[in-house]
Request: fold
Amino acid sequence: MRLVGPSGEQVGIVPLAKALELAQEYDLDLVEVAATARPPVCKLMDYGKFKYESAMKAREARKNQAHTVIKEMKLRPKIDPHDYDTKKGHVVRFLKQGDKVKITIMFRGREQSRPELGYRLLQRLANDVEDLGFIESNPKQDGRNMIMVLGPHKKKTEAMAEAREAQAARKADAKANPGKSQNAAEGDEGDGVDEVEETETPAEAPAEAPAEA
Reply:
């Protein structure tokens, strides 16, 4: 077998008995790392430490993995100004989080004969949030509904990083001003969102390469 030392140095081709002797001498494990190679490759290592470090790297990779999330916001063509502002506020929040937003205009009864109402409403919303997002999918009719998809200008990973920084800043402020901590916590609690649906699709994030054994 071809033996690799604990620091990655090449020991050379040695018989199994000699490799086991060296493992005992260094108080390490003899681990086969390339069984299909000719000759097979083995390495002297602390296998328990290797398993622990690999698990920590995998955990960190999962922690930093970004997800593409599509939120859905449903509106009526004749929505009143207050409801429109509320719905727009949710769209703004989603885009700031780096999420896509599917806007659905629901037509009922005779409203179906006035698709231009839905189109104008979607264009108005897109214009109102153009600083945060762009039209990824133009308005199109889908049965009784009209659908448009908004994409965020900000990448999900950037939004996650900013959210972590903001959270750290809030914690630091709360620590410096204990009296404000309760109010800050209450302010972070958002109200329930009506007619919002979420779907998540894991984005392709670079996998953390396992340490070479």
In short: Residues 2-63 form a domain with the Ubiquitin-like (UB roll) fold (CATH 3.10.20.80).
